[in-house]
Each structure stands twice: as C-alpha cells, then as structure tokens.
Amino acid sequence: MAWTDHLTGDPLPWLLAADTPAVRAATLQRLCDRPNDDAEVAAARSAAMRAEPIRSILDAQAAEGWWIKPGGGYAPKYTGTVWELIFLDQLGADPADAHIRRACDYVLCHTQASSGGFGASGADGAPPPPSRVIHCLNGNLIRALIGFGCWGDPRLRASVDWAARAITGDDAGRYYQSGTSGPGFGCAANDGNPCAWGAVKELLGLARVPPHERSDIVRRAIGQGVELLLSRDPVVADYPMLSRDTKPSGAWFKLGFPSGYVSDVLQNLEVLADLGHARDPRLANALSWVESQQDRGRWTNRYAYNGKSLVKIEQQGQSSKWVTLRACSVLKAAWQ
C-alpha cells in the first residue's frame, strides 16, 4: 500500500492552496519531495514572509530582536522571545530574513546559561542560571536555531553538548531540583522522573544536528532518548509521570499546532521518524490511532494556543492544514 492509501480523502489540493503559502511551501517539500531550491518552494516561502501569521509576528518584534520585553525571553509564556522564535521555525520562516537573524542572536546572547543549555528566564534581565535549564526548552531552541542556519555558532554547539551530557550523565555538571534533576531526562516538573515531553523536544533538536557531525556522546544521547520513547506505546503514553497522576496528560491526545513545551502522540512519532524509526513495529498501534483521527483526509487542531499566543495561527477545533501536514508526513515516512 502507498501511504496515500491510508487516507480517507485527498488533502493535497487543500494543503497546496496559495492562500496559505507557509503550508504550501512545507507541503511541496515534505509530501511532494521538492528540493530547497525549487522555484515553487522559493516563491511560496517568499509569499509566506509577507502573509499571516508570519508577518504579524515579525511586525511585533523590537528592533533589538526581542518580543514583549527584553531578557531571557521565556516569559510571558507563548508570547515572549523564545516562543516566537520556536513558532517561526515551525512556520518555516526564512532564515535569511533580518528579523530572524536578530532574534537568533538575541536568544543566543540572553537565553543561554553558563552551563551551555538554554533556560527559563532569570531575574532582572540576567541570563538564566544553570538551575533553570530544561530539556523541553533547550531542544526546541536547538531545533529552531539549527533550522535557522546557526549550526556553526559555538554557542549553539555548547547547548547541544550540554543536552547530550545531561542525558547520558557524562560529565554533565550539577543537576538541580528546580530544573533538569538527573540524567536520562530527569525533570523536576515530573517528580524527578524521566520526562517524555522533554525527551521528544530534545530529540527534535538533536535530530537536526548533521549526522556526520554528531559526536559519539550525541549519538549515545539520541539512542537513549529513542529507547525511552519506544519503551511505551505512544498512544498509551504511560511514560513516567507525577506520583499524584493516575493517567497520562490529556494533552498527549490533542493533536495541535503550533507546539510549545507540550508534546502529543504525533510529535512523538515525528521525531522517531526523523531519526529513522518510522517503521518500527512498536509504532503500529500509534500509527493506526493517528489514521483514525482523520475526517476525509483532514485532521482537527485540538491544541491551537488560541488566546495564548501572540497571534492566532489556526482555529481551535477546526480542520487544520498544519496538523494534517504533520500527520501526512508521519504516514508517508511509515508507509512510503
């Protein structure tokens, strides 16, 4: 069976429509296998920079490169600097745009702790302390910054090195009760247990490190993360959780876009696909579940950050081009 045989309708004309050029550009590449230098991809990307929601996000940026207020950028949540950079990467914004270059440099200057990892905002505009470095943010920012062409910056490489050493426990320095609390994705917000959300985000970042430039410790960290994610059925999602919880967070099962620190079944599958595990038989149940969520080849946005993000990207509870693209990309990786 072709991957399209797993769809109950054809979403391609809808995804390729000119009125949503960011989706069109991503669809041409992810589903139609067009290269980066394809003329139609370039035209759609250029149009996306002038269209919503990218245009309004960039218009709201301060000249220095921050959003809402200067500093580490984690707060206010979903409207501060780090979130806008993360969302712009997910929207496929142009790495060469001056706004993007300023935002990347601002984050590298203000959001990185002395340990190398990226952390939640420190007090009084100071960089966050090492105790505030967390895998979910670090991975999201590694992914965005590599996507925006910053891999050659030694500051970004330091954050990758922090991630790998924190995961494996190899000379990671100190762990903290207030942040990353131990090796293997230990997280204070998860009672010190390994955090699957953090693992998904950190692996999304490490997956963008060019394979030929992955150090031995990065490869081992990736392997450790993949082992954690494959240790459970993603659609059951019974990963280690808070002691007071009796079932996984409902957010796991609300497929959405954009994606902040929360993860979902589909993003779990996305990162495993990125790392070459899309056809692992342990994912069969989760893939079937994703297929079951469609309505005539379209998926609904059930976690859209409406009212929380700087600008509205999609409408909660309605058919979503971005979630549909995400789902189709996973099914293509698994069944092509």
Q: What does this 3D model show about the protein?
A:
The structure is a single chain. With 336 residues, the chain is mostly helical. The chain has a single domain, classed as Glycosyltransferase. The protein has 13 helices and four strands. The strands form two sheets. It has a two-stranded antiparallel sheet. Strands 3-4 form a two-stranded antiparallel sheet. A hairpin with a 3-residue loop joins strand 1 and strand 2 (186-187). Helix 2 (21-30) runs antiparallel to helix 3 (39-50), helix 8 (154-168) packs across helix 10 and helix 11 (265-274) crosses helix 13 (321-335). It starts with 11 loop residues before the first helix and ends with a helix. The mean pLDDT is 96.
